[in-house]
């Protein structure tokens, strides 16, 4: 499947709460392929959620293994259907960016360690613990499923929002 165009803020789909996936069928597997291709094609992308390509379904993908921030601590490619965080701890502020908000980055506070339960692309229920950059990336993508952008979580609009110098 080809990479899909990314919806950019203020597109209304980005603010909608996504619907749970009832069954992982060929349509959902096609969506997963589109998400993976879109993530791999995006400049510096470590994840994409279905709403970013126009589908209001609770599906996202994350892979921080190619990032300098996540290459030491990751689970590789994560395909998450109906993910839910069942435990979180710690807190840290980290600079985040988003393909749906290409001109800005911002300081966002997130849990430093999370446990997330989800179904993978084959429908198998999984539960993993993630920390550091991978935990941040998962929380960021899961926010998209609830219609939340990193802009909604900026620690301070006065001092925590930055114009992006370049986008790679």
Automatic annotation (TrEMBL):
EC class: hydrolase
Cofactor: binding comment: Binds 1 Fe(2+) ion.
Cofactor: Fe(2+)
Metal-binding found in the keyword field: yes
Pfam family for this entry, one: Pep_deformylase
Segments passing through the bilayer: none
Catalytic activity: N-terminal N-formyl-L-methionyl-[peptide] + H2O = N-terminal L-methionyl-[peptide] + formate
Entry GO MF terms: metal ion binding; peptide deformylase activity
InterPro entries membership: Peptide_deformylase, Peptide_deformylase_sf
Active site: 141
Enzyme Commission designation: 3.5.1.88
Family (UniProt): Belongs to the polypeptide deformylase family.
Protein function: Removes the formyl group from the N-terminal Met of newly synthesized proteins. Requires at least a dipeptide for an efficient rate of reaction. N-terminal L-methionine is a prerequisite for activity but the enzyme has broad specificity at other positions.
Designated name of the protein: Peptide deformylase
């Amino acid at each position: 499947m080809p990479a899909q165009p990314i919806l950019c803020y203020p597109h209304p789909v980005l603010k909608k709460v996504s619907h749970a996936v009832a069954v992982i069928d060929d349509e959902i597997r096609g969506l997963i392929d589109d998400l993976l291709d879109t993530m791999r094609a995006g400049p510096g992308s470590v994840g994409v959620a279905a709403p970013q390509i126009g589908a209001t379904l609770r599906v996202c993908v994350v892979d921080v293994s190619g990032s300098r921030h996540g290459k030491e601590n990751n689970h590789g490619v994560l395909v998450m259907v109906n993910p839910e965080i069942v435990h979180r701890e710690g807190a840290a502020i980290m600079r985040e960016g988003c393909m749906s908000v290409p001109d800005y980055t911002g300081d966002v506070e997130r849990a430093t360690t999370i446990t997330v339960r989800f179904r993978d692309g084959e429908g198998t229920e999984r539960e993993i613990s993630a920390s550091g950059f991978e935990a941040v990336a998962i929380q960021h993508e899961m926010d998209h499923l609830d219609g939340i952008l990193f802009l909604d979580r900026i620690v301070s609009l006065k001092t925590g929002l930055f114009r992006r110098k370049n986008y790679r």
